[in-house]
Amino acid sequence: PVDMPAAVRRHVGAHVAAGLAADRFEVAVAPGLPALWADPDKVDQILGNLLENAVRHGEGTVTIEVEPACGAEGTAVTVSDEGPGIPEDSMPRVFTRFWRGSKRGGTGLGLYIVKGIVEAHGGTIDIGRAPGGGARFRFTLPAAVPAHMA
Fold first, then answer.
1. Is 40 or 70 the better-scoring residue by pLDDT?
2. Model confidence at 145: pLDDT above 70
């Protein structure tokens, strides 16, 4: 099983070790998380991409919330920032190949790959607007082995 809170803390720690201020990140972990069946390397890829995007393209505090998924046996992770967000008309395209929100680096494949990994694990991912107006990505991974893998 994957320890999602530990994985989140590891990624935040890597950003802090690379020179970002620790207070740039806020991590909230709810109690009662189920044991999570997932490939730890792929979970790292998901978290790495979402946090890197929030740091590179967002502003202010990057908030990472880990909680039991509503109405499902699984874990939900929300990554949000306080930047300008993603324009409403671009939201339907963020998970397509080669979509880039800005000219600041990247190949435009990261979110496309993240979506594929989440869905391969039987999970879901969506985008929205954070309370402060920035981008909000939320993914849910099931606790059980996906039916096609059982």
1. 40
2. no
The gap from C-alpha 66 to its chain's centroid, in whole angstroms, comes to 10
What is the arithmetic mean of pLDDT over 52-64?
91
The chain-wide mean pLDDT, for the chain, equals: 87
Predicted model pTM: 0.88
Residue 19, exposed/middle/buried by CB under 10 A (0-12, 13-18, 19+)?
exposed
Q: Which of 148, 33, 57, 39 is nearest to 105 (CA)?
A: 57
Average pLDDT over residues 26-33: 94
- CATH value of 4-149 in 3.30.465.60, 3.40.50.2000, 3.40.50.1820, 3.30.565.10: 3.30.565.10
